[in-house]
Amino acid sequence: AFRSPAGGQAVALPVPAPLLLALRCLLLGGAAAALLPYGASRGDRRLPDGDDESSGAVRLRRPLPFYEKPAFFAISLQIGTNGIISTQDFPRETQYVDDDFPTDFPAIAPFLSDIDTSGGKGTIYYREDDSPEVLGQVTHLIHAGFPSTAAAAFAPTHAFITTWENVAAYEEVSRSLEPSKKVNTFQAVLAYDDSDTYALFLYPPDGLQFFGTRPKESYNVQLELPARVGFSRGETDYLKREGPYYSVTSNEQSVKNLYQTSNSGIPGVWAFHIGSTSQLDNVMPAKVGEKPSEERSLGTLASTLSSSPTEQNVLDADYPDEIIDYAEPFYDENEDDDIVYLPMGPTQQVRDAYRGLHASYNEPRHSGASLDLELESTLPYPASSPHPSYPDVKSVLPYPVMKEGPSLASPSSEDDVESSQETGVRTPPSLETSDSLLELTTEGLPENPEKDHIQPYPDSGAAPSEMDIYPEHEVILQGYPENAPPFNRGRQVVGVDEDVSFNPDVFTYNPSSKETCEWNHSQCSQHAFCTDYATGFCCHCLPKFYGNGRHCLPEGAVHRLNGKVSGNLLVGQTPVRFSAVDLHAYIVANDGRAYTAISHIPQLAARALMPLTPIGGLFGWLFALEKPGYENGFSITGAKFTHNLKVTFYPGQETVQITQTADDLGPENHLSIKTHIQGQVPFIPENFTVHIAPYKELYHYSHSAVTSTAHRQYSLTLGRINRTFAYQLHQNITYQDCAPARQRWAVPAVQQLSVDRVFALYSDGERVLRYAIANQIGSSEGDDPGPVNPCYDGTHACDTTARCQPGAGLAYTCECTAGYRGDGRDCVDVDECAESFHRCGHGSVCINSPGSYRCECLSGYQLVVDRHSCVPIPPPSNPCEDGRHTCASTDRARCVHHGGGSFSCVCLAGYTGNGHNCSDVDECAEGRCHQAATCSNTPGSFSCRCEPGYHGDGIQCTPETTPRLTPCEQERHYPQPGIVPHPGRHEPQCDEQGNYRPLQCHGGSGFCWCVDAAGREIAGSRRPPGTAPPQCGTPEPTQRPQTMCERWRQSLLEHYGGSPREDQYVPHCDALGNFHPLQCHGNSGHCWCVDESGREVQGTRSEPGVPPPCLPSLAPPTVRPSPRPDVTPPATGTFLLYAQGQQIGYLPLNGTRLQKEAAKTLLSLHGSIVVGLDYDCREEMVYWTDVAGRTVNRASLEPGAEPETIINSGLMSPEGLAVDHFRRTMFWTDSGLDKIERARLDGSERRVLFDADLVNPRAIAVDAVRGKLSAIRACHTYLHTLIYYLAKFANYIA
Fold first, then answer.
1. Which single residue of 134, 154, 660, 1111 has CA 20 to 30 Å from 1245?
2. How far apart are CA 1220 and CA 939, in angstroms?
3. Where is the composition biased (Low complexity) (predicted)?
4. Across-strand partners of 571?
5. How does DSSP classify residue 996?
6. Higher pLDDT, 431 or 646
């Protein structure tokens, strides 16, 4: 019986026994899963809408057995939003929703992911049901999956049904992206009686539209975690030890297959036995079609290939919606997600053998997440392939292989399979790809017939004799236990070599010698000891570490490599250049796998470089899995070497040179590599796939050099096109060995590197070139045909952070590497800082890292040579005080100290030069004195004296005679010659400046008239006494220049296009052009007081409706401000960059004064409005925002450099911009979107920092030293206001 739409009625139909048998045989051709009836009409309760809701305890009518006896009986259940059911309260979702199994609380998870039902995005129903109708349907589905006698007698008395209907994934709100419309529907049914509990997970056709969710804590990383499906017992006792758990899915493809396949014979119906009062070690899955929890032992290839098609692992088969899905991102600086390929057995050549290739790696449990790499492709050999013919294979491998154990026997019966289960299976093989699938790759083209003629490196010399480097009777390490922590640098540990081949009378150990360990032990790794030999000292790694002694890494640990790649290539006939693109590599050392990713490489070059696997192959050789008696590259070279590679392609004879240089190990033991590629490579058309078969190479070893010559073939395929090409390579690896220990060098002269798997991939969307290889280093004579211990071929089941310890025969044990703890199959990081296992001393802080820790010094301290202790930083010497400077004499120049040993020289006022050489300035020649003064030049100064007949300071001189009168004053006081003064004479009226007043009136007669500027009467203007005086015009006032307020107002109005919005600020000026004391921000109601320069008076900003009382502005100061005496002026060569309209200008400084005459325009950007501006002093690049083009741009200050747009989308009104040159990051504000964003300096890794509670954010500044960000906002001031309006005309200044 199957449900009608929600709330509808369901009809129970009897299912005959023959039909049940038919259901058990169906794989993909059977009826699809349908949900049991649910909804309000069935009495279901509904979970509240939200992102992290729970039902609270739902009490059951009878206890429900969960897991095995003596496990508890659950008396209540709790339903969570995130696709999970538990028997107890849920923790916060951030503590479990993004983690892998096991959980630390009981969990039943049909689809554990970050689900959000808020805003009507789906509904979650739940109820307990004991109706015969529902119990009958449940019983039929359980019997279909468990046809055995024991399960056939199971008759549930109750069923608990939980339904997630049309639920959505959590998404962060974004203005630029539409919400996803993908929703999921699925159902979990728990059927139980007094002794047993079975679970059904039901996934209807197309019920799953999304397959994972993005973690909240790193939502912008574009990383999606696949949903987890399975069961977990949780912590079992007060010691919080992990209980058993069972995981159904491992990657996105396995989640996609949930509704297309099953383990019960009915697609989309998954059945599990999850509780019993009798023995039940772990969850038992159904046995029909799929066996998701069974751990199969390795079967022989013959028996595996002969498996029945009905037992085929259909979850790993191809389906219409299957896509090539690589992990995103492939590498990240802080990511703990690891990607590896499953280990495999001996390679077999099989034609047309497989349709899908899944490679997955589940991350160690401590990180709580898993990330899987799926390589799903079809790689048939075409008819033209040179491979030999092999019999057709009728089916793909039916079951995955076990990682534990070397057995090659297939399980003989169903009971054997059941007993092979183990507690704590991380990922059930039913949803992962079998290792045997990986074995169905080809071994490659026929071997190079010339390989037997390859000669070793010419200077290799005779092969050294094989002997132990550290004979027990010669190396003395007293009292050092095997598991003791690394030596403290405060103690000197020296092993003294007693080499009997040397005369004891000639060599005597002398601790005072600089070539002994006493003086040089600091050159060894902190995980190494120092040994004195007759001719010097050498470093040797401690037990459980490997390397050359100067650089040691823990055995079994995973390693990361970082670096830069530059290239100058001719791809076909097209030149391609790239510089300093990122290279990251991830190494799983305990099985020899190496993954390399080169990002942001041009597509043309990336596709052409896919056949050049030696670029990543170097890392495979460095960390290859070692056979007994053989050593990988890092054990010999350590972390400092140079790899030179010459490759010649055939048939085109193109030649390319590759140089890879290793610098050292970083603070986190990350190896640093620089790679340069130069030459010509063949062009590879788009959409072609590169296939490289497994291969073997001989490496020849001599002191300080390793060489190899090889011939490889690769094929390009596209559809039915298959073409084979080849290249020859010559490798030369040089390094510095330890000469005193050469006679004890035990590395074989020739070793063979076996590359079992090799893949080269390029992602167009990500622009990432990837290499993945699995490597072993061993004998050049080939492997022993007998059984190989799993530690030596990588088929062990140890954790990626564990050492595989071989035992007798095929036995082995797993031991967590240094810095981790656990049983070896599951290892977790030890927090040495929290558990006080560190050795950080006074003045230092312990920082935990995966597998290790580091000590960082507090401010004012510095690390000493032991890397654990910190000592106070001595005060830097001051060259200006101790006389070590090179400035001119103190009467001519001043020495300016910049910290440490840095200083600059500045000539004193009155002198000119570069500070080291200063010459006197002749101020008299520059005309510093008044024309009526005598100038006298003196060293560093001058004097001015007014000439006779003048008085003043010499800078300004005025005549000593009576001041000259104006014509009006002259006429008023001194009548014209020939006119006799009399009482009735008219005395003209003069104004304050001595000019004629326009209206003149005779004091005696009472007549009035108008005069012009020369005092002449204007005809017709005279008026008799007693009448109204004439209206005399006043001279037109001279137009005054614009004030600062008016200029700023005009600049902003032009910026806003002449008509600002109501929420945009425009300065308010009074009638005289001064700033009005009260300024308000548009119609927002926010107001504040300003001073005479328009600067806000702190503490006066008010809320809407309550304007602050502001006093009238004061008169501007008349004295030019000068810097305080304790302020150091900028050094010579300092300049200001400013933005003005569509121009970016350059203004040099001379001390604290602007050299306006030397100002010039750097960039003229027509059609732009430049607002934000900053400068990257490391790369000499200027960055700016353009509100007209809505872009963020940059340009080099080099002559002829062209501007480059680095952000051109998602912007409305970008304004303020700041560059953090330490962290290579930029920040900008957008006053239109009310956002503050950040990105790398190349525009990548863009993210929004603030988009709430912002109103019109403008200027922004970053304190690169302290890592702090400050901004000016138009209305909110809870962030520190750091920048004020600095320039009269400039939009921005840097």
1. 660
2. 45
3. 298-310, 430-445
4. 574, 681
5. B
6. 646
The pLDDT value recorded for residue 327 is 34
Least confident of 216-230, 310-324, 818-832: 310-324
For residue 1013, report the phi and psi dihedrals to the nearest 5 degrees: -65, -25
Q: Tell me which range, 486-495, 606-615, 782-791, is most confidently predicted by mean pLDDT.
A: 606-615
**Which tokens go with 1165?**
């950007």
Angle at 838 between CA 832 and CA 843, to 5 degrees: 125
Residue % of the chain over a pLDDT of 70 = 72
The three-state secondary structure class of 1279 is: coil
Residue 865: pLDDT above 60?
Answer: yes
Structure confidence at residue 1125 (pLDDT) = 64
How far is 166 from 466, CA to CA, in rounded Å?
Answer: 69
- For 222, 596, 721, 767, the CA distances from 603, given in Å and listed in that order, are 22, 17, 22, 7
Exposed, middle or buried by CB within 10 Å (0-12, 13-18, 19+), for 1072? exposed
Q: Residue 1053: in which H helix or E strand, if any?
A: helix 1044-1055
What's 462's DSSP letter?
A: S
Inter-CA distances, 130 with 60, 136, 192, 1264, Å: 11, 10, 10, 66
pLDDT of residue 1003: 76
Residue with the larger pLDDT of the pair 360 and 1202 = 1202
Three-class secondary structure assignment of 1107-1120? CCCCCCCCCCCCCC
Estimate the share of the chain in helix, then strand, then coil, as percent rounded to the nearest 5. 10, 35, 55
DSSP-derived secondary structure letter, 990: B
CA-CA distance, 464 to 91, in Å (whole number)?
62
Among 159-168, 759-768, 843-852, 1213-1222, the range with the most confident prediction by mean pLDDT is: 159-168
Cα 1184 to Cα 1152: distance, rounded to the nearest angstrom: 25
Digit-coded pLDDT (tens) for 1189-1202: 889 999 998 877 88
Q: At what angle do helices 132-145 and 17-25 cross, to 10 degrees?
A: 50
Residue whose token pair is 């990002």 = 599
Determine the average pLDDT of the residues in 1180-1187.
Answer: 92
Mean pLDDT of the region 145-163:
86
Q: What is the pTM of this model?
A: 0.37
| pLDDT given for residue 1044 in this prediction | 83
Task: Say which DSSP state 862 is in.
Answer: E
Q: 515-530: per-residue pLDDT in tens? A: 788 888 888 988 888 8
Mean pLDDT of 1204-1208: 92
Cis peptide before 667 (omega within 30 of 0): no
Cα distances (angstroms) measured from residue 1208 to each of 69, 866, 1220: 63, 49, 20
- Tell the burial category of 7 from Cβ atoms under 10 Å away from its Cβ (0-12, 13-18, 19+): middle
Query: CB–CB of 361/343 below 8 Å?
Result: no
Residues 6+ positions from 156 with CB-CB distance below 8 Å? 135, 138, 139, 142, 191, 192, 193, 198
444: nearest Cα among 711, 804, 237? 711
C-alpha to C-alpha distance for 1088 and 1107, rounded to whole angstroms: 7
Question: N- to C-terminal Cα distance for the chain?
Answer: 74
**Overall size of the chain counted in residues:** 1294
Among 1209, 1220, 1215, smallest CA distance to 1234 is for: 1215
- 86-98 average pLDDT score: 86
Biggest CA–CA distance in the chain, Å, is: 151
| Apex 854 CA angle, 852 and 859, nearest 5 | 165
